[in-house]
Write a structure and sequence with these properties.
2 domains; disordered N terminus; 26% strand; Rossmann fold; alpha/beta; six-stranded parallel β-sheet; 225 residues; Alpha-Beta Plaits
Length: 225
């Protein structure tokens, strides 16, 4: 058993399930100087990561007593990365929330699993395969979108290269808000940032626009010639 003091502690997280997703996440967080406790009931998986993580534990995460033995309550955030055994995923998520863990992130494979995990108390559910597929689809339908931040299911903020058909015209002339429902938040022009650009700002070739709009509108805008 080990315990981590809550005073002056560094960023830390417990990850339950050290398959491909859990192990990759654990390694990435270690690179960002987190303290990571990796948990798996498969001894080989845990031992394979023993030299890379802050701590590892071998136990059945559906067993509340076993979780208390490793002082899981010392962690404000626990990630349930169990993929193959959904029953264990649900039971672990519910157990953690019943124990009072403030923030539990759980992995789901399907939308149905996501809905169930949210109902049993997960604070956030991630779908790695779904998200990766969605990102690829977005890249294919909107190739000029460089970065995107989703604001819920229907709207996003995106960085888009200005379409050539709009260059040498002012924002007032192209009137993106009325025509396409797109709001230009800022323009990146080389090293210059033009925040909340005025209506008489002329768009130049090579400008990067940070824009807000619905996902459909952003796709239409990114495909302008």
């Amino acid at each position: 058993m080990f315990s981590i003091s809550r005073r002056n502690r560094p960023k830390e997280v417990a990850i339950i399930g050290l398959g491909r997703f859990g192990a990759s996440l654990a390694r990435a967080l270690m690179e960002y100087h987190y303290n990571v406790l990796g948990i798996d009931q498969d001894a080989n998986r845990a031992q394979n990561l023993a030299d890379e993580l802050t701590h590892v534990a071998i136990l059945d995460s559906t067993n509340e007593d076993a979780l208390r033995e490793i002082d899981i309550m010392a962690f404000d955030t626990v990630i349930v990365a169990i993929g193959a055994d959904f029953e264990s995923n649900v039971l672990t998520t519910a157990t953690l929330k019943n124990m009072g863990i403030p923030y539990v992130i759980s992995k789901a494979v399907t939308r149905r699993q996501r809905d169930i995990l949210l109902r049993v108390g997960a604070d956030r559910v991630v779908q790695p395969e779904y998200d990766a597929g969605r990102r690829l689809a977005e890249e294919m339908v909107a190739p000029t979108v460089l970065e995107r931040v989703h604001l819920g299911p229907d709207h996003s903020v995106a960085e888009i290269v200005v379409p050539k058909s709009l260059t040498s015209r002012t924002l007032a002339q192209v009137d993106l808000r009325s025509r396409m429902g797109i709001t230009v938040l800022l323009i990146k022009r080389g090293d210059q940032l033009i925040v909340s650009p005025a209506a008489d700002t002329i768009l130049l070739e090579g400008d990067l626009l940070l824009v807000l709009g619905s996902n459909e509108e952003l796709v239409s805008f990114s495909n302008l010639p």
